[in-house]
Amino acid sequence: MDEQKRQAALDALHILDTPADERLDRVTRLAKELLDVPIVALNFIDHDRQWTKSQIGLGPVKDVRRDDSICQHTVASNSLFMIEDTHASPDFAAHPAVTGPPYVRFYAGHPVHAPGGQPVGALCAIDTRPRQFSDHQLDLLRDLALWMETELGRECLTEEVDAARLLSMSHECPQIPGYTIAADSTAHVSLSGDFYDLTGLPGSLRVTLADAMGSGIGAALVAAGVRASLRTEPERPLIQAMTDADRILHEDFAEKDMFVTAVHANVELATGKIELVDAGHGLAFVIGADTSWRPLRSVNLPLGMNSAVAGDYKLVTDSLAPGEHLVCCSDGLLDVLDPADPFGHVERVIRELGPEQAIARVADLALDARATDDITAIVIRRDA
User: Fold this and answer.
1) Which domains are seen in the chain, by residue range?
2) Most CB atoms within 10 A, among 128, 226, 351, 366?
């Protein structure tokens, strides 16, 4: 478990030291009745303490040192953690929570995860006598922990919608000597399922464009999650970043047939070398200094189709010479291009107007009556 990421996920929930929440308390009360235990608690593991958000049966609750927390073991294992009789356990017989209040003899805890999947706390059922849980009771504990996670996710929804709205807005492109960079994303409805990202790294530029299936809030939230995944540890190799994003998306939406086409690339600034992974997108290419253009496509399935299991993503390489352009767009742009020669249309506009004015033209085309989808485009020129 990556403790730094886990702690960051907990901090992002903004739940520590907040007042009681009836939506969570009702789950706690129900857990007590269904599991027939005197004590139930929803605990979160902070840097050096255990903090209790919801509980029944503990009386006045104070923070507990992390070293004195049993729930920290549930979080660390990221799985069900159970002690049927603490007095018979060499690891817990002398534990402060066993020898003193609340005098734990039986403990069953299930991890509670942040929306991104990191274990941040535990829902625990405690008894003052040794006992066993049946498979049915363990299933109930798991389901109740999932309910807690759902409630926590609901708390985050407003923030995520705001993040998705910001994601769909244009943002400034990095200024890099020797390169002219322009990009824009226009939502077909209020929120976009497209996004682009241009991240400067030491000696290189990381370029991402992705298109979540559909449009509106659902696609925007999925796009926001994929963007967050790909921006995490931006120095990761391209294939590793895409494999991680594919796995997360597949785990979260395997039964929803949700997928995302994406291009994730790295441009080495000194040489113009391009490394690129294409996940079912097929809309990245280089416009040569003459009248030529060449596609950059690797044969991979979209994110969310579990390509991480089927096989590693494949990398394609090229080189951006002075005067050449790296271009990538979402398929929404195809609706408003010359249907007889869409790529020729793009090439002519870029050669005539240059990157910045070409992107301004794309923003105008997004208002065309023929537009039926979000439209996103990136143009990067290596200046002569």
Assistant:
1) 3-159 (3.30.450.40), 168-382 (3.60.40.10)
2) 226
